[in-house]
């Protein structure tokens, strides 16, 4: 006679699952981190089954007490989770039955692992969104502090990594603040998308018990319930949205990391990254490498890979639940861990970065960065912009040949290129005057940057941000 199948679903099977298949299909090694969500959910479900007249009040209390003990046992490492029990859900159910016997077997009435697991994951995503948003706000706060501290520092603004126009360092830093603001909004949107309770969907068709889904959702902190049981158990869009938000967050941090790496080179010398966030070379004694910034940049690849994993996982699945969906958790967990880790270390590192103000300002005075201002000057004198552009281009070429900067040109020299130049032209040739002229919302004028910093602090102080 074949060995009895001891699985919760083993009644219909004549042979036990092969050991190799058991190990291959087990997810408890990574989904164990959902144990709190699973137990909190089960506690709420036990109360709901009383209303549905499946459990008595006494049975519900017995189950809840045992589940609370199991939570502490797992948390403190006293309870061992078993691979052969497949996942965290079956492990907790087995521990419950072991602790209180037959009563523990009643808890799963009307519930499937299909609606159970996705509810757990939705709870997990909501929690991670809260944590990541707090870390984004912390990084934004560092940016605001740095922007306020360096409000007078001028630097070259770049396009194509070529010096373009002078800007305030603070304005440059605030550009990343705005990127993070969008990242924060995307994570909040992902949290809102996850804020749907799926319990009551059963395996795919809904439950046959009178489950008060609205009350259950309220107890578990969900604002709404799923509207279609087939969709509910197979929907992982909210995970994709979370990882997509993380991908853009990592893109922005990677861009900033790239700039710090470039700026810390001997050739730029715009910043010095603290020794606490740098490493040396095993062969070259003089080296100081920006490894933390490089790792933040490099870890972007992990998150991008996780997004592609999830999209590929979902693209060919028929309704409703398929075991393929077990593969959704590792990319989700890794993304959450990576995003939190990068946000935390990047904020630490950035807060200690030393900006070499004199070097940055000196760089802003070379490379003809006020050429556009000179063209605008001619436009204000009635010269069509395209003609003004051409005139100033010729002036720049003359300066390159003469090895001099725009601001050192005399009025006589300028008049050789256009009679529209008058004595006041010198007022537009300095980096300071160029920056002051950008006095428009979103511009680099100091007054506008101060406004942006003030607005940023107000946003961070509000509960909405």
List keywords for this structure.
Fumarase C, Chain B, domain 1, Fumarase C, Chain A, domain 2, Ribonucleotide Reductase Protein R1, domain 1, 6 strands
> Strand order within the widest sheet?
1-2
Number of domains: 3
Q: What can be said about the biggest beta sheet?
A: 2 strands, antiparallel
Question: What is the approximate shape?
Answer: elongated
User: What's the CATH superfamily of the largest domain, by name?
Assistant: Fumarase/aspartase (Central domain)
Describe it.
37% of the residues are buried. Helix 4 (57-75) crosses helix 5 (88-100), helix 6 packs parallel to helix 13 (329-352) and helix 7 (169-194) runs antiparallel to helix 10 (237-263). The longest helix has 37 residues, at 113-149. It is built from 19 helices and 6 strands. It is mainly α. It has a two-stranded antiparallel sheet. A hairpin with a 2-residue loop joins strand 1 and strand 2. The mean pLDDT is 93. The protein folds into 3 domains: 18-109, Orthogonal Bundle (Fumarase C, Chain B, domain 1), CATH 1.10.275.10; 114-362, Fumarase C, Chain A, domain 2; 371-429, Ribonucleotide Reductase Protein R1, domain 1 (Orthogonal Bundle).
């Amino acid at each position: 006679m074949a060995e009895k199948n001891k699985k919760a679903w083993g009644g219909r099977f004549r042979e036990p699952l092969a050991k190799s298949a058991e190990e291959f299909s087990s997810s408890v090694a990574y989904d164990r981190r959902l144990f709190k969500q699973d137990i909190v959910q089960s506690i709420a479900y036990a109360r709901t089954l009383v209303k549905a007249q499946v459990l008595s009040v006494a049975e519900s209390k017995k189950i809840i007490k045992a589940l609370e003990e199991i939570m502490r046992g797992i948390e403190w490492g006293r309870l061992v989770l078993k691979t052969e029990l497949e996942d965290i859900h079956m492990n907790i159910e087995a521990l419950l039955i072991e602790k209180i016997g037959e009563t523990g077997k009643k808890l799963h009435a009307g519930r499937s692992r299909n609606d159970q697991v996705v509810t757990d994951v939705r709870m997990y995503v909501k929690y991670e969104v809260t944590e990541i948003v707090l870390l984004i706000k912390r990084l934004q706060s560092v940016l605001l502090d740095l922007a306020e501290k360096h409000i007078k520092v001028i630097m070259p603004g770049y396009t194509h990594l070529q010096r373009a126009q002078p800007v305030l360092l603070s304005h440059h830093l605030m550009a990343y603040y705005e990127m993070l603001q969008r990242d924060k909004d995307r994570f909040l949107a992902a949290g809102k998308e996850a804020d749907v309770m799926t319990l009551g969907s059963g395996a795919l068709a809904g439950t046959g018990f009178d489950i008060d889904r609205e009350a259950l959702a309220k107890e578990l902190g969900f604002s709404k319930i799923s509207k279609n049981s087939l969709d509910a158990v197979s929907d992982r869009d909210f995970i994709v949205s979370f990882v997509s938000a993380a991908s853009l967050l990592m893109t922005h941090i990677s861009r900033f990391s790239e700039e710090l790496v470039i700026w810390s080179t001997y050739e730029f010398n715009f910043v010095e990254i603290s020794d606490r966030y740098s490493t040396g070379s095993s062969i070259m004694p003089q080296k100081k490498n920006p490894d933390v910034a490089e790792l933040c940049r490099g870890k972007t690849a992990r998150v991008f890979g996780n997004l592609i994993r999830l999209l590929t996982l979902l693209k060919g699945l028929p309704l409703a639940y398929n075991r393929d969906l077990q593969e959704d958790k590792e990319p989700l967990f890794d993304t959450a861990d990576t995003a939190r880790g990068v946000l935390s270390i990047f904020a630490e590192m950035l807060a200690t970065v030393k900006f070499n103000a004199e070097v940055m300002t000196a760089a802003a005075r070379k490379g003809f960065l006020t050429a556009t201002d000179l063209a605008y000057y001619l436009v204000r004198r009635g010269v069509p912009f395209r003609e003004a552009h051409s005139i100033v281009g010729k002036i720049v070429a003359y300066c390159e040949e003469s090895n001099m900067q725009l601001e050192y040109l005399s009025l006589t020299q300028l008049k050789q290129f256009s009679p529209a130049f008058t004595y006041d032209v010198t007022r537009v040739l300095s980096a300071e005057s160029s920056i002051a002229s950008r006095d428009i919302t979103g511009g680099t004028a100091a007054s506008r940057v101060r406004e942006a910093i003030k607005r940023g602090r107000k946003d961070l102080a509000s509960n909405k941000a």
